[in-house]
Amino acid sequence: MPKQYRLLYDENLCIGCQACSVACRVENSVPDNFFRLQVHVQTKGVFPNLGMSYERLSCMMCENPPCVSVCPTHASFQSKDGLVHIDEKTCITCKYCILACPYHARFVNPLKNVVEKCTFCYDTRVSKELLPACVSTCPTEALSFGDMRQKGSLVEQKSQKEVLVFPKAHLGTKPKVAFIPSRKGVKV
Amino acid sequence: MAYLQARRDFLKIATTGVATTVVIPGSLGALGEVALKSEDKFIRSICEMCSSRCPMEARVVNGKTVLLQGNPFAKEMGTSLCAKGVAGASQLYDTQRLVKPLIRLGKRGENKWREASWEEALSLVAGRLSALRERYGARSVIFSAKTGEQYDLLRSFASAFGSPNVFSHWSSCPIAIESAFEHTFGEKLHRDFENANYILNFGHNLFEGLDIPLTKAMAHFSANPSKKLVVLDPRFSVIASKANEWHPINPGSDLAFVLALLHVWIRDAKYDKKFVEQYTIGFEALAQSVKETTPQWQQTLTGIDAKVVERIAEEIYAASPKCIIDWGHKATTTKAEYQRSRAILIANILMGNVEREGGIYFAKTAERINAFAKEMIVPVLNDPYPRPLVNEKRLDGAGEEGSANRFVSKRHGSLTAIPEAILAQTPYEIKGWFLTRHNPLVTVAHPQKMKEAMEQLEFIVVNDIYLSDTAMMADVVLPEATYLERDEGISKIAFKTPCYAMRNRIVEPLHQNRSAIEIVRELAERMGFGSHFVWRTVAELRAFQAKGDSVLLETLLRRGVASFDVPELFARESVFVERFCERHPKCNSLLDSNGLLSSMLTQLKTPSGKIEIFCKTVEKAFKGYGVPSAVDMDVKQGYPYVLTSGKSAVHTNGHTQNIPYLNMLMSDNPIWMNPLTAKEHGLKQGDTFYLKNGISKEKGTVFITEGIRPDTLFAYMGFGRDAPMMKRTHGKGMNPSKLLSLQSATLCGAMITNVGVEILKA
Questions:
Q1: Closest residue of A to B673, CA-based?
Q2: With contact defined as beta carbons under 8 Å apart, do B562 and B552 qualify?
Q3: To the nearest whole angstrom, how far is the Cα of B327 from the nearest Cα of chain A?
Q4: Rounded-to-integer distance, Cα B702 and Cα B657, Å
Q5: What's the whole-model pTM score?
Q6: How would you label B178-214 residue by residue, b for 16+ Cβ within 10 Å and e otherwise?
Q7: Which regions in chain B score pLDDT beneath 50?
Q8: Nearest residue, CB atoms, B11 vs list A19, A34, A40
Q9: What are the chain A neighbours of B706 within 8 Å (beta carbons)?
Q10: Which of residues 641-700 of B touch A (CB under 8 A)?
Q11: What separation, in Å, do the N-terminal and C-terminal C-alpha atoms of chain B show?
Q12: ipTM of the predicted structure?
């Protein structure tokens, strides 16, 4: 049976420390000054009524991926588990997918001259029953990952319990990455 | 601040391209490709990207480290590790690392070197150190290292050499809280964040100065809606953003707030009277001392409304004993840092949270657990680093009757006393300095003066990974192996239960790098006191330490950590005591009439054996310091602004700024400034300006943010490097240490890191 992966990002637990970003770089040899994954922290409000927003930026592994439908060579494709991958051999670096992605998650790897993005560490880890590098290293356990069809799994349980936000849900892309928004926003 | 950038920069292509490679003599880049030999495997070890020393594991494929993560055999770690820890391989393979010993050519600090063999470098070091001892006496040589195994090693070496002048990094970091513990409890206690319900935090920013077990516990605490976190900090830090309440307190005034809390509790008789009566001495003196420190009084000092103090006092009382007033490890640093630390400890004591679940507790070391179990349930280690007493006066007067530093630990010293001692050659001649992974020209106050002093020395040897600002001043630079290339001894970790951890080599040293253990052992041999150490190799050291316990050694080799299934024990929680006694029935004979282990609190290493709210010896030497009192809170010294500094989550003090992966995340330290302040001085985002005070005038770049008080400025530490060999960091940002004076905090000798400045347009 195909898997139904989900990655949950709990903004309440995230401290913006970038351990996930470095783990991703190490695991996937992401070229210098490019990022498959980053967390942006921003201070909001006016002194002394302040809050911080934590935003995780990466591929959302859409159920309806615009990057796949625009790809002229089918280099961007969806696996039977619903994950979006890029076949480096067929990628002609036309960048349509970069323009189509509403999450700005793709970039051209200058060393290989192909388009790249987060893969949920499918090849090196998830296919071997390991957690993605970012999930594994997160110092505060802000990330959880797993198969939603597996009853009682951490993602399944948390998804039941928490209010989930799917980024840019109005676009109908149906992301597999969901956010648990911070309960401590800007105090007004 | 790359990681605070706007979203549109997320995937920005670097405009710099590939920089022209300039090969540094003695660096890894000069060697070209290095062949690595090692099997593919998981190896468990200890991180060393900061002082927290988290247990970690490495996946090694084809002899190269693939991913570092937390060691799941250490329960509190899981697979978690911070950005610095994960970037360990980026340091290991950094082409700007040193791989060959360097010997100075030209003038000191001129940065001209020649490569040397280990044989030549070590015989030069051994010869010069021996000559200094011969000519000026052993005390003429200073030894300094960051606290940890390397410091224990160097201290042992210094004592065999005969010098009392050993310094750790303590006085530039935790010395105030360590002294406060010493005088209050006779030893250090820990915080049970996991089970607390209320935490009052004074700028202890565990979300930017990470220590994984503590950070993780604090993160779960702050994310739990049924718990309450209150943060007092002039800056809107990451932990402030996770708090239920943030109060932008006046910098330097934590002490006033705590004294007002104490005042309210005592005024209303809302504190744990039974606890105070049974376990402490000196309460009356405290009550007298805080008579006038009303919430109204603190308002003018802290800027926090009196009503807020009243409310918080009541809330904590209601939450006690499952509440913690967090002391951090260094926060306001004013002249009164010792008093601040003591006041916080005493506030905890009044809440009766000592040895209670969700409160604060004594470390459950192997020795303590064995004593309560009345049997050997945890193996006790041998000390491989003997330290015979050197009966000589220290250059900083630490521990010396009559000296201003009489209460400063002789083991750690006060670093800010060094420059004057060298420049004035008082109290005696100082001619040499041996530094192991210690970079005072970045991390200690007034590096200008320190540099001037170093120039006067006859011989300096530095053991480091990079040719740092301090290493540049050396005669001989010894290229140390990074922690991923080193085997080391066993280290003790004792929080709620005892645990041992061991640093195991992840990969073979890349080139000629050697560990400090190998270097120091070799020097001892050459200088004729090899017999000082009973071991010759790390393998022998470990075996000696473990007293030949092969099971322990094998566990540490395979798992990186060893724990002993000891039940958690809080001496004043009957459930925990009963569970412990059930497992270890001999403990029953130690129970008091309430079935608790109160002797843990009545046989302390303080003069009275009890918790000392009032310290007689301290009062005798420093009038008004026997109990916490309102003293020395001014940090502005007449200047309009206060410059504060602190850690970021991606860098450690003076250590990590040049590491490629981390430098990519933060390569600069623009100074935080409130928009109102910026407007007043006509500064726009990114403008350069000067910070000026009586010590120095330093150029900075402005980072305008609402997240700071208008009268306060903030800079992340560790930037403003002069060392040209650290190419990624050289000339970037500002070194806040350059604006600090050499005056240290009263009694404890701590470096003062909050300082008054004015803003001048560039």
A1: A47
A2: yes
A3: 21
A4: 19
A5: 0.94
A6: bbbbbbbbbeebebbbbebbbbbbbbbbbbbbbbbbb
A7: 1-25, 28-39
A8: A34
A9: 43, 45-47, 50
A10: 649-650, 660-662, 664-665, 674
A11: 21
A12: 0.96
